Amino acid sequence: MPLIGKRFPRSGSLILLALLLLSACGSGERPVPDGVDLFGEYVRATNVKNDRIPTASTSADRLANIAAHYTPEVLKSRLFSAFPCTENSAARDGLFDTSCDLNDEVLAAVQSAGGDLNEIHGRVVIVKHEDGSFELLTLFVANGKLIDSTGQTYTGLDDFRENNELLDADDLIMAPRNITAVPGEGELVTDWGRK
Fold it and tell me: How far is CA 130 from CA 8, 33, 101, 113, 133, in A?
């Protein structure tokens, strides 16, 4: 029986309207707030947890120190490219610290993923926590898999955002879309740390 021209009781009309509105919404994620520039905020931040670039006492000093070594494009490339992990922080690529904390969980996950234990690549993600603090989160890439510091393995950025237990839903991150590629330069995305 066609619905056109049919009269519905008032409550039935409201239910039908609500269902139509819900179906139009889809299952889309909440958008990242407009105007977010995590890279710019990170560069100016003077207290970044696990930072791989030495932090100066003021934003101006930090910017001057970074500018003496990198253009913004080169810094972005250095920051978001996968890098071969070194054992100590004395090993650097310019200002960039390439040392990695390769704990037993990470080593086991690299081996399980079929990666080479002598050639583990690190990758950083800029994290802005809900409280406004910044962190450079180091992840590892082995044989096309992404590994966190707990040894949890992911297939890519979406899998990491869905299943990681390191970040909260209100944390913002900036990372390469193709996060498992080595060296992994390419499109950068800003998104929520958890879906």
Answer: 46, 13, 25, 32, 7
